[in-house]
Amino acid sequence: MIVNGLIVAVAGSTGQQGGAVARRLLADGWTVRALTRDPTSPGARALANAGADVRAVDMADPAALKPALDGAYGVFSVQPASGAPGTPPDYSWQDEIAAGRNVADAAASAGVRHLVYASANSAQDRAYGALCPYAAGDAPRAQPGCRRGL
Fold this sequence. Notes:
With 150 residues, the chain is an alpha/beta fold.
């Protein structure tokens, strides 16, 4: 079953959170565009075998993100956390936030209707660096990172 022919792009699709989301969406009939740094990894190959459109995209590269999100109805984005496999030794929570902002900017530019931002390190305020700091139950509205119209 295809759900309205709508595409959901999953950034971080070969990690634990992103992989679980991609597999669930595929099982529920969504068209999944799986974004990963390494499309030859076992996780990426498994998603491709399950029907996902796997694309090589680095969240640190804003120019690569928009074409990967063009035509997507929704985006689930989980960025690598510091110490995650495949990240440089100096990768920090600031890098995670920058990657999240890159995805949010590209999603807004591509006309994506829904964005889900998941964080392993924390989306909460860290010296004004947070993507969307807000208390549980409140609409994200305080920071420029939350003003993308998504």
